[in-house]
Structure formats: C-alpha cells, structure tokens
Amino acid sequence: MNQILxxxxxxxxxxIAANQCEGAYxxxxxxxxxxDVQPEGLMGKVIEREAGVGYLKDDGIDxxxxxxxxxxxxxxxxxxxxxxxxxxxxxxxxxxxAEPNELGLAFYxxxxxxxxxxxxxxxxxxxxxxxxxxxxxxxxxWLNRKTIGFYEKYSKTLFQRYxxxxxxxxxxxxxxxxxxIPFTGVGIPNESPLAEIYQAIHHQLVASASVVKLCHDMIxxxxxxxxxxxxxxxxxTCKPEDVWQANLDxxxxxxxxxxxxxxxxxxxxxxxxxENKIIVDITPEDTLCLKxxxxxxxxxxxxxxxxTADKSKINTEGNLLHxxxxxxxxxxxxxxxxxxxxxxxxxxxxxxxxxxPLFIVENGLGAKDVxxxxxKIQDDYRIEYLKDHLIEVAEAIEDGVEVMGYxxxxxIDLISASKAEMSKRYGFIYVDRHDDGTGSFARSKKASxxxxxxxxxxxxxxxxx
Length: 465
Known about the structure:
The longest helix is centred in the middle third of the chain and has 25 residues, at about 195-220. This protein is about 40% helix and about 15% strand. The protein has helices spanning about 20, 55-60, 65-75, 90, 100-115, 135-140, 145-160, 180-185, 195-220, 240-260, 265-275, 285-290, 340-355, 380-400, 445-455, and strands at about 10-15, 80-85, 120-125, 170, 225-230, 235, 295-300, 305, 315-320, 320-325, 330, 335-340, 360, 405-410, 430, 445. It has 15 helices and 16 strands. The chain is an alpha/beta fold and about 475 residues long.
C-alpha cells in the first residue's frame, strides 16, 4: 500500500455538540430547548418537563464546568481544530428577547480562550439539533417565517462577539435530517404533512443563506459552510430500476447541498413537489437570498446503504434513515453498516458535483467499551474503524479532492444523539458516566487516544504501519 501523507494545512480534531456534552441545562439563564424535551434522544417522544424530574442529558458529561480539562486533553492529542456548537438558549433563552444573555456569551468566551491558548481552531455550528422551545410553542418553529429573523439576530450576535477569533462557521447541523425528524430539525411535530415540513425547511434554507451573507459582511476572511448527514446509497443490484431508485434516494439529501452550494432549487425537486401536490411559498426575495452560497461543504459520514425498487425487501434503520442492508458489509453493535470505501466514493461524488472544498466533520464508531481491572480501555475496534476510513480519505485527496480537515465524532464520550445513551461511546477519552446516571465524570484515556495522537503527529504516516 502506498503511503499518502495529509496536507500540512489539514485540520485535525474532533466534534462535539452542546446539547450532548455541556449539561448545566438551566444554568446561568439558559432556558429549555427542543433537545431538553427529548430526554430519550432524537428517536424518543417529546415530553412536558416536570419539576424535580431529571434526565441524563441535563448534566451531559459536565463539559460546562470541565471544558478546560477536556480541551487540554484534546491539545495533548495534537488537535488543530475542534468542532463545537453554541447552545442557542444560552444566548437567547426564549429566542425572541431584545438583548442576549451575557452569562451565556461569557461562557463561550472562556471556551474560546482555552482553545486559543492551545492553538486549536474553532469550527462553530450555530444550531446543532436544538432551538429555543419558546419559539416552537409561541411561533410554531420554522414553519413560521418570523423564525428566520430570530435566527439572523442570534447569528449576528455570535459574529459580533466572537468574529475576531472564530473564522470557521456552520449554519445548521445535518440540515437534511429535518425530513426524518421534523421536531428536532425544524421544531414542528414529527407527524406534520410533507408540505409543512418542506415549507419549514425552506425557511431554514433562506435563513442559512442570509446568515452566509451576514458572516461574509461582518467577519473578514471568514469561511462558512453547510452541514449534511451524508449517506451514499448504492443500488442493491445492477437492475436499472434499482439504479434509478438509488438516484432518487441520494437526491433526498443532496437537495439540501444543491440549494446551499448552487443557490437555487434543482429541477428534480420541482418535479417531486408537483407529483406530491406540495406548494412551497417562495418569495422573489427568498430566491435572491438563496444566491448567497456557502464556501465549503461539511458532512457527517457513518455508513452507506442500498436502494431497490422492490418494495418487498426488508429495510433497516441506521442513523434515522431507512435503507436496505448491503450484503457485502459488516455492521456495528447498533446495526450501522461499516463501509470505509464509501467515504472515498462520497468525497469524489461531492467534489465532482460541487467543486467546493469538503470538510469531514463527523465520523466515528459507537461501541460498548470495557474498562479492564487495571483501568485500561483497549478499543482496537475503534482504531481499526478510523484507520480504515482515514486511509480512504487520503486516497480521495490523492484523487484530487480538496479536503479541509477531519473532526471525528466525538473525541470524548458524550450522550448519544439517537437514544440519549452513554453506553454508545465514540471517544478517545472515556467518561465515567453510565446510562443510569451513576459515575464520577472522571476522564481517562483509551488506547485510541495515543493512536490518534500518533496519526496527527505524523500527518497520517502511522496509518500505514
């Protein structure tokens, strides 16, 4: 195997999300977000919070109080980039206030201080699977056009406060997931009609484009991208009907990147709207706004899937999407199929389609780690997964794809998004916390910690040892 070194400017690191790691869910003026009423995760029901009843996500891994310790550990691994999100409800607790919450702003000042001290570049997601619950209850979430203005004000506040230190931004996390879990993505009921879901999505796409322009205007030298959950779908067979079905399935998530990267609605979505009698209110001002396109495309990649026109085939669920099992791939403990070659295929596909820089901002293996009697955690399965994927990333770079960086999900154990579990661990750093809420929150290094440290230090050379 030929050794391929990563470019010197390549950004190495990890990715975390506020609602999965910070905890302190009502501290220093923060109010409830949509995530706070999904205690069982994205796949669970939406609840009414009861006084005195707590949930795992309420404390997360206590990053709110331990951020300095965690960032120091990231620095030990050699991180040059940390992708993190800002909790909207720390800055505007209700979402429609006249003035932001200073205590919330000050918290992220301290986080950015630590990152700067360790020479780690922040990549900030403005909204990551959360929004103020008040905007849902009082305005109807993103179905209401007024929410565009609330998001613009929130974003402008972030740019004013942090723009001198944060140059890399993402507008929304996995924006295409709104199609599958609308409450999480756009703050409307999951059983909403498809026409309402696409209308809410449209408002979010307009807001994203508006904030792209705002970022460029307010922060000289800034780069702002989108973020999609990318799951390339292969045809199950070489039957033309299966090939076409795979094309249709891929367009469901590529639609979001098409609008944000090209600046207009593609023709295939117009046909889909016509055939499903979906009418989306798109104003002339919206059409003009959408022309504010992103600088780069970022994505999560965990698995691929297959598609077939044969509806009798059994579907399997992976990361919120229904796809047919690929008979040639192994699966993780949670049924997510492992496909390292898929990330090279994906990178080439996106590069050929958009000719914009790409950033892998989530990729990792969720697994049940075991702490040995001597305290060691030998997660060779995670090392193997990441190694195989990173070698394929290197191959894509050699193919000519422009890749800005790689931030694994998540570099430290945190609450999983889909089912709000601690037992589904991704980290290089183990956190002593468990599904029943017990644990000391103590941090310890897994075998993968030293391995990833070596990969970064060698610019990928150790991948081939």
